[in-house]
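G., the chain you wanted modeled:
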Amino acid sequence: MGNQQVLSEKSPQDEDSLWFGPSAATIEEMQPDLMVYFVPGNPCMMSYYELFLSHLSTLLNSSNNRGKGGQTALVGGSTLPGFQLSKPSIIKGKLPARLEDEILNTEELVARAVVQCGSKDVGGTPNRGPKIILVAHSVGAYMVLEMLRRKAQRHNKLADLDIVGAVLLFPTVTEIAQSWHGSILSVFLYIPYFPAIVAAFSKMATFFLSTSMLSWIICFFGRMPAHIGKATAEFLKSPMGVYQALYLTTDELKMIRHDSWDKDVWGSSAAVAEKVVPLRFYFGAQDVWVSNRARDRLIASRASSGHEPGKGSPEKPVMVIDNEGIPHGFIIDHSQRVAEKAQSMIEDLIDLNNSS
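Predicted structure as tokens:
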């Protein structure tokens, strides 16, 4: 089954959203069984993840997978406020966006995507919408955990959505300032106006370069693949992407500290009245944005005893550490391999949901 980019009838040329499915139908026409909504890391631009999401959609919608009872899957998401390629806009809060603003806007974007998927009647019966699995990278994982906490407490728009699991890739969810890159940036980001200074320098350095020329320079001198060169050029040429990225990083260093979630997110080995959303974590072995000590402490205190999909308590998260040397920035050279790992975790979550 071929993989096609999917568009929305409501925004047929939306350059800040990216969706893939088994056909070229629009989101509204497709009526998927499963929506895999992706929350990007910082810089929160979907173009960086095009190869990863396209391959993940191909895997989930393959004829082999559907022959085993798989479901039609819609895979994608939206660039977050402040990172848009055209005029920046925000649904909630103000620009530049804080981490809290990005969480609120991601909730809104997920809810809007579900409305598009389930807005039509099927055989005269209103379609409730697809099952949802959230997939996130880096700081996107923190956003997802916070969204799930609010969902469990019925404090957000996701409260009534059928979220059946979350896959968190190279997650930065605790003590980001203790990581190698976090400790370095902590010094620079407390220099007054540092984000504005860097953003201004970036604008001056790239002002006379077209996006295509800048992309070629990045690919040639940085030895980057074409899709990363293009995405980075778009990021540097975007109206406020560089400033927004550094501003958000400053807030991440302040906000992402100790583990502040409870059994609403982490679950419990004992029976609980409200079922939690099952979680799958995939950590890097030597992640420049994740402290090994903080990672190991989180695994020891929160992970299922099985430590791998399909084993341990179904209520508690499964947390796995990579053993293939895949870096935090997997989108550069390891998009397809990580898509395969994400596929396995997503199918595990689907099986878990079908058996409950």
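The chain has 13 helices and ten strands.

Shout if anything looks off.
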